[in-house]
Amino acid sequence: MGDGPLLPDGIVAIVKRDCPTCRMVEPVLAQLDADPHVELTVYTQDDASFPSGVGKVVLDEDLAVSYHHGIETVPTLLRVEGGVERDRTVGWSRAQWTACTGVDGLGQELPDMRPGCGSLSVDPTMVDELRVRFEGHRLAARRVQVGALEDEIETMFERGWSDGLPLVPPTEARVLRMLEGTTRAPGDVVAVVPPDLVECTVEKIAINAVLAGCKPEYLPVVIAGVEAACTDEFNIHGLLATTMPVGPVMIVNGPVRARIGMNAGVNVLGQGNRANSTIGRALQLVIRNVGGGRPGGVDRAAQGNPGKLTFCFPEDEEGSPWEPLHVERGFDAGASTVTLFPGEGPRGIVDQLSREADSLARTYAACLLTVQHPKLPMAFDAVLVVGPEHGRVFAEAGWTKAQLRERLHELTLMAGKDIVRGAQGIAEGAPEWVGDAQLPKFRPDGILIVHAGGGAGLFSSIIGGWVNGETGSQPVTKEIGA
Asked: Domain boundary at 100, 123, 146, which?
């Protein structure tokens, strides 16, 4: 909404002929107009001759009055004093109209109450046009003119905005609709985006969320992802510049998962869910289009992975035998969060036979030892995505998540003599001085465990990480705001 036409003092009614309730109260409006103590003004949305019997009828032809004063239902009756709305009632209610106007005996022949109809200013076929007409000035972004004979999709490819897939054209209407998904002002600076260190506003994120195909309700999740990515701890610049095939992985927790329809079940790490797919894509497009992180430029991944297009999924908290990831990381269970992890594409773990927790933990450990390289200790973190059927094995054994993590650390201890350079006929490995030591594969907090996937199938997955610590990247969790 915003500044609009001032309303005159007195009683103001907003109506439309194409509303049975408005037609029903036509005699009541004439009754109010005839009362010497009432100064009545009627704004009509669709017919200058309606209602009859009223002296001051104004056609709200461009719907400016209805839009700027937040009229969602007609009839709406307002009492205005000194240019300020003091009372409002929607639909028809004899008691409420009497209280608002101070006039008794209104509409005695009418039912006591009847609901109204939707205002034209909130009609789905018109609201986007009205938003552009009245709020387009809110957008700071420069409009790129596309010629009548140009193809919008091809133009966006040619201008280098795309990640290789078609984009949704970010029209004013779509961007303004996207901004409805957050209470934050369009000009709020969310982060400074590497590698070009450009200030990124809510509006810029909204534009890229449109490009990615997001719905407005996804926008707060994308904003939190951008905030997390642009921290020193996550180090998105380093993640771009490395030649390793890694990128940001988004793990979503909390009530927002259900609210926006994310998929934590079948094919959780794959395609098919709009929220999962477009939220991660929007983050990558912000980094590309705002921060300048493009493949072949600062993005130097030697091979990359499909997850660099988008990699976002929620945890299945309801089906999990354990506390969710965000609770482990210090947030309330009722909070909604995004955790960013610097990861490669997922690799599957197959164990169809283990029915004992320790046997399954040993399978996990054997696979985890191969993260990035089986002879490199403590350099890389990992996310272990435990599938529901595997999760039940641990639940039936009464293992907590902490127990599983502790056992995995025990099982992934590495004998120095086996991992030094040249050992096992492999030149890669740890330096010679660790030969007499026993080294952990992972840091104490280097294994993140989440629960997700379809209910059928004895499978889990590993997402290997990039270099951890101050020289690399740390997982970062941010709470999702409004």
From this structure: 123
Q: What is the pTM of this model?
A: 0.88
Alpha carbons 42 and 314: distance in angstroms, whole number: 51
Domain-embedded: residue 129: no
Question: pLDDT tens across 6-27, in order?
Answer: 999 999 999 999 999 999 999 9
Can you tell me the distance from the alpha carbon of 277 to that of 213, in angstroms, rounded to the nearest whole number? 9
The whole-number pLDDT of residue 289 equals: 97
Domain membership flag for residue 454: yes
Transcribe 160-202 into DSSP letters.
Answer: T--SSS------HHHHHHHHTT-SS-TT-EEEEETTTTEEEEH
Tokens of residue 324, six digits: 């969710």
DSSP 212-280: HT--GGGHHHHHHHHHHHTSTTT-HHHHHH-SSS-EEEEEEESTHHHHTT---STTTTSS--HHHHHHH
Q: Which domain holds residue 56?
A: 10-123
The CATH number covering residue 91 comes to 3.40.30.10
On whether both 163 and 103 belong to a single domain, the answer is: no
- pLDDT tens readout for residues 113-142: 999 999 999 999 999 899 999 988 889 998
Question: Where does residue 4 rank: exposed (0-12), middle (13-18), buried (19+ CB within 10 A)?
Answer: middle
